[in-house]
Design brief:
Length: about 110
């Protein structure tokens, strides 16, 4: 999986790879491969699954509502769709059932 990802990204892109502290992520060989590619490794605190709960929830929704619905050939296309999804299509109950942009417009009009 890591090698497939490395084939799609350039070296030294200043990326951060966040993960839990699973055994495979703590392996020196794995860490060395990341360092060679110029990727900084970030791990949640040991034994605290709540560190990544919000991110996992968000990315789970993003994948099921956007990513799995379309085949992306270019990263720029995915980036554009993520921004569109996040701002205009993602409905939040905390925002009275509106997307962030709809809520902002509604709040300014009130």
């Amino acid at each position: 999986m890591l090698e497939k990802a490395f084939n799609k990204i350039q070296d030294n892109t200043n990326l951060i790879l966040h993960s839990d502290q699973g055994w495979q992520y703590e392996m020196k060989q794995y860490q060395h491969l990341l360092k060679e590619k110029g990727i900084r490794q970030s791990m949640s605190r040991k034994g605290n699954c709540l560190d990544t709960a919000l991110a996992e929830n968000f990315f789970g929704l993003l994948k099921s509502e956007l990513f799995y619905m379309k085949e992306y050939k270019k990263i720029e296309e995915l980036e554009k769709d993520i921004i569109e999804y996040y701002n205009n299509k993602r409905i939040k109950s905390k925002l009275k059932g509106m997307s962030p942009v709809q809520y902002r417009v509604h709040s300014q009009a009130a």
